[in-house]
Design a protein that fits this description.
single chain; Double-stranded beta-helix; globular; mainly beta; six-stranded antiparallel β-sheet; 231 residues
């Protein structure tokens, strides 16, 4: 399996090249194009195996995180083939090769992965206010490639110590990093008047991916420009 990203960073498209018999798991609605001999199977668990209740629980947890209830399995049958995927937002895609450890992603960031990767919703409590995305983030475990997307371009940062990021610009981070959400500037004056709101203070050692645009901020700006609804 090979995943190549084209048209970065504004309108990224992931092209997945599958060998005969290989499968890629993708978020519902992400498919752009595919070969005619690609077989599709839709499941709630994201994998072909597993019981009904287990799949339903995973689907419900993904919905809590802003993902779709169902995921699609794309399998190359009888010959190699390719499938392309794109996110809803205008932005970038990163392909991360997972080994040992865990990867945490903001809600809606997951695009596609090898079936050896498990993507689950992880309840994080009130500390996970990711730019208005709610109290749930995604946790990826397993080995193999996983592709995640952003709003705007993605920048990778190697953190060794401490680093601060606006909560609305976090895309993903490795489990070697711990974090706490604090007020911008450390005090109420900066928090209220500084226009930044909450920031995330990361500590430890690991990779962090941030996005150049804030989806919530963009939505608020766009909403203010729309005419009022009549009636």
């Amino acid at each position: 399996m090979q995943i190549e990203v084209h048209h970065r960073p504004s309108y990224a498209l992931a092209e997945v090249k599958l060998e005969t018999g290989e499968t890629i798991v993708a978020e519902g609605g992400a498919m752009v194009s595919m070969d005619t001999h690609i077989k599709i199977e839709t499941t709630a668990s994201g994998k072909k195996e597993g019981g009904l209740m287990k799949g339903l629980m995973k689907g419900l947890k993904r919905m809590m995180a802003g993902e779709s209830f169902f995921q699609n399995n794309f399998t190359a049958v009888g010959a190699p083939g390719h499938v392309t995927f794109a996110p809803t937002f205008q932005g970038d895609i990163v392909v991360h090769e997972m080994g040992q450890g865990e990867l945490f992603m903001q809600s809606t960031a997951f695009l596609c992965s090898a079936p050896t990767i498990t993507v689950d919703a992880k309840w994080g409590g009130a500390k996970t206010f990711f730019g208005g995305e709610g109290l749930v983030m995604l946790k990826a475990t397993g080995t193999g490639p996983v592709a995640f997307n952003s709003f705007g371009a993605i920048k990778e940062i190697d953190v060794d110590g401490e680093f601060i990021v606006d909560t609305g610009h976090i895309v993903a981070f490795e489990d070697g990093l711990s974090f706490k959400v604090t007020k911008f500037g450390g005090g109420w004056k900066s928090f209220i008047l500084g226009g930044e709101g909450l920031v995330c203070n990361f500590s430890g050692r690991g990779r962090l991916w941030i996005q150049t645009r804030n989806a919530s901020g963009f939505g608020e700006l766009l909403g203010s420009k729309l005419p009022p609804r009549e009636g």
